[in-house]
# Entry
Amino acid sequence: MQKETVRNTLLAIIACLLWSTAFVGIKIGLKYTTPIQFAGLRFFFSGLLLLPLVPSFKKLVTAIRQNIWLIIKVSAFQTFILYALFYWGVALIDGALAAIIIGSQPLFAALTAHVMMSNDKMSLRKTLVISSGIGGIVLIALPKGVSGPGEWSELAGMALLVMANIASGIGNVFVSKNRTTISPIILNAIQMILGGFSLFLFSLLTEPFSGFDYPTEYYLALSWLSFLSATAFSIWFFLLQKPGIKVSDLNVFKFIIPVFGATLSWVILPDESPDIISIAGMMIIGASVVIYSLLVAKK
# Structure
């Protein structure tokens, strides 16, 4: 049991490390195209990357037919709603702040699971660890508060990312509640193809279509984002469907995302740099994850 816990922990960390690289890729891609169009292409290609891993076309069709409503619900909340809000929010604020706000997902996942699942209620331990992690996020975000009329777009971006966190929590609950009905690879592939295609169609109604004549940098960013989404979400869905793993417990590992996401943004993006308060907040977040992991390992 101890060995399986360690393996699950490593898988969760790998998924979060992959997600932490997304913020830089998104900021690069958004230099050339519109947010929703970029999101739609990213997830559509992510789903296509997973199709070769499906054992047979017959199993694919059977799984879709038997789980069509689950696929639609997961696709709506985990891809369409989540990433429409996410990309709109990221387009309004810098990469480091986006990484920090989306890093508050564990709180919203825990609250959503508390409301929607009878076996995943908030405990004192979860509340303390999540509060500590959120404290670190607030500490990092504090210097970026609204200070004048020109900052309202940044506030709107933060609000959009908070709503994206809520959609993510609902999507996680849907996956966890259906542990044995569908393979995580098939569920992830089809929900991302459906969600990505819907996002792209939605972009044609809400954004100007700019074609596909972009530099190599754009396509490298799109390729990496598609790969990381296919890999990270498949790992995450696999863990959510494992018996004994709770939505709130698993999502605590997402506190890793703002730490590495902000660091990569500071290293790669020329207009972003750290400060002492941000570093202190990151240390608090990191300590929260380590403490929680040790407590779970002792169960």
